[in-house]
Specification:
Structural class: alpha/beta
CATH superfamily of the largest domain: Metallo-dependent phosphatases
Strand content: 15-25%
Largest sheet: 6 strands, mixed
CATH architecture of the largest domain: 4-Layer Sandwich
Shape: elongated
Distance between the termini: 53 Å
CATH class of the largest domain: Alpha Beta
């Protein structure tokens, strides 16, 4: 059903772009040629997004790049042309005044309607290319390193200044491979963290497809190790458990509705992890009671949970800090507003019912290799005593 709906939406978006950018601006052979190009781009995008899911095949690299870059351009063409609709309506009086230029020697003249349509198409095209170009530089460039102090009650002095490197939404896949992982691992190690937390959406494929891309994770260096919780994309593959076994082999410890004590001498805090909500469909649901079973109330509790919306359950159980991802910080403005409507926080540090919530924008991207007003990040949480 999802595939059918997505296909219909993409077709309607292409039809709208065709109407405004081609039908209203070009005629004859030029119009036919541009229409053929747009139909080919629709087929390219359908093949990129839908055929791998329908047929279970892995798209070649050239197809993935071409399809996803066009996806980003399509989105912004669609949006900018929509934004120009009020301008078009406001200038209807001007359009009725006749040709924008006198007839030439061949008797032809450019009507005001066509002139306005062409100007709008050029403006939309220029804006879309500019946005996607700068967005690709942001998405494909190195993530920002964000250093965020967080004060916790009951934190033992032994953990004052304890650093947790948080990454999420790496999205290893056809456009982000081994080099992407190597850069992230190197940047994390440069921060000299005490602990690494990977809060979901690490992969978009199977171990057979992406095992080599994930392998540099074995080089993560931290005093207390690296931990992982599932995101929704980990449940898009046939065997989530296969990835969990592979991560353990690479030295990354999954926390599946469970917790562990992080100790320094006689001091400790609790690190817990809960499965993603998408696990409901795979009989692998999040279980907060199990994840927080046996937690010592005299110690602070830090919870790894992929989606910020899970903070409601965490706060009800007295969790001190929840570390999450999932939102991508909106990834492509103006989708920030849609994400904000669905999640309690888009990015950064906030407080929900007494529980600190930190949301990273993620170190990768999903779909188009584009980030607009939402740069990728690796966040280093510095724990401090709340006196």
């Amino acid at each position: 059903m999802f595939i059918v709906v997505l296909g219909m939406i993409l077709t309607l978006m292409h039809l709208y772009v065709w109407k405004r950018a081609i039908k209203d601006t070009a005629t004859g052979r030029v119009g036919l040629a541009l229409t053929a190009v747009l139909v080919a781009l629709l087929a390219l995008l359908m093949a990129t997004l839908l055929l791998p899911k329908l047929l279970g095949w892995r798209e070649p690299l050239w197809l993935a790049w071409a399809g996803y870059v066009w996806f980003g351009l399509l989105v912004y063409l669609f949006l900018t042309l929509l934004v120009l609709e009020p301008v078009r309506l406001a200038l209807r009086w001007w359009v009725r005044r006749g040709p924008v230029s006198p007839p030439g020697d061949d008797g032809s003249a450019v009507s005001r309607r066509v002139f306005l349509a062409r100007a709008g198409a050029v403006a939309a095209g220029a804006a879309s290319v500019g946005l996607v170009g700068t967005g690709m530089v942001s998405a494909l460039g190195p993530p920002d390193i964000l250093r965020v102090p967080v004060r916790l009650r009951r934190l033992d002095p032994a953990f004052d200044g304890f650093r947790i490197a948080v990454i999420s939404d790496v999205h290893l896949g056809p456009l982000a491979g081994r080099a992407h992982t190597e850069r992230i691992v190197s940047m994390i190690n440069d921060t000299e963290p005490d602990l690494v937390a990977i809060v979901g959406d690490l992969v978009d494929g199977t171990v057979a497809e992406l095992g080599s891309a994930a392998e540099p994770l074995r080089d993560l260096a931290s005093r207390e190790g690296a931990f992982f919780v599932t995101g929704n994309h980990e449940y898009f593959v046939d065997d989530t458990g296969e990835w969990l076994v592979e991560l353990e082999r690479l030295g990354v410890q999954p926390l599946r509705n469970e917790n562990t004590a992080i100790r320094r001498g006689g001091a400790a805090f609790t690190l817990a992890g809960v499965n993603d909500i998408a696990g409901d469909e795979r009989s692998d649901s999040p279980d907060f009671d199990r994840a927080l079973s046996g937690v010592d109330p005299a110690r602070p509790t830090i919870l790894l949970a992929h989606q910020p919306i899970q903070v409601t359950e965490a706060a009800a159980r007295g969790v001190d800090l929840q570390l999450s991802g999932h939102t991508h910080g909106g990834q492509m403005w103006p989708f920030h507003y849609i994400v904000e409507a669905a999640q309690p926080t888009l990015a950064g540090l906030s407080t929900v019912d007494g529980t600190h919530l930190y949301v990273t924008r993620g170190a990768g991207f999903w779909g188009p290799p584009v980030r607009v007003a939402a740069p990728p990040d690796i966040s280093v949480i510095s724990l401090q005593r709340d006196t």
